[in-house]
Design brief:
Blueprint lengths: L9 E4 L2 E2 L3 E14 L10 E15 L16 E7 L8 E15 L7 E8 L4 E4 L2
Antiparallel strand pairs: 1-2, 1-5, 3-4, 4-7, 5-6, 6-7, 6-8
Length: 130
């Protein structure tokens, strides 16, 4: 079984690598409709719709105009997340996402941070780097 360390990852908006990424998450969900009928005790269901969403946390970099700078509220972006790097054979996730929230924060003893949340618009595809 293979496992990977987080610092192997890369996040891109289109072809631009996002600078100063600290962490990211993607959540995929399936909505269901109850198909249970009288008689059997156990419930049954069918999948109706799927969706995905996620977040990206960075050290804020105001010079990263094509990465962090493209992540403005309401923007539609091509998101490409490489959990294990971008070497041939590596898995990555690609989809169009709408930026739903942008947060910037700082503490007196820390680094200024930026956080971005997004909602998938269509499918999230799992692909392999060629």
């Amino acid at each position: 079984m293979a496992n990977h360390v987080g610092n192997e990852g890369i996040v891109q908006i289109g072809a631009a690598v996002v600078a100063e990424v600290r962490s990211w998450s993607i959540e995929e969900t399936a909505e269901t409709a109850d198909t249970s009928v009288m008689g059997p005790v156990a419930r049954t269901h069918k999948v109706t719709k799927t969706t995905w969403s996620g977040s990206l946390e960075c050290f804020w970099d105001e010079t990263d105009s094509t990465g962090q700078g493209a992540l403005t509220k309401g923007a539609s972006v091509q998101l490409d997340v490489y959990p294990e790097g971008n070497t041939s054979g590596d898995v990555h996730y690609v989809g169009t996402a709408t930026v739903t929230q942008v947060t910037k924060q700082a503490a007196h003893d820390g680094i200024v941070e930026a956080a971005f949340t997004f909602q998938g618009n269509g499918d999230l595809a799992e692909q392999t780097v060629v």
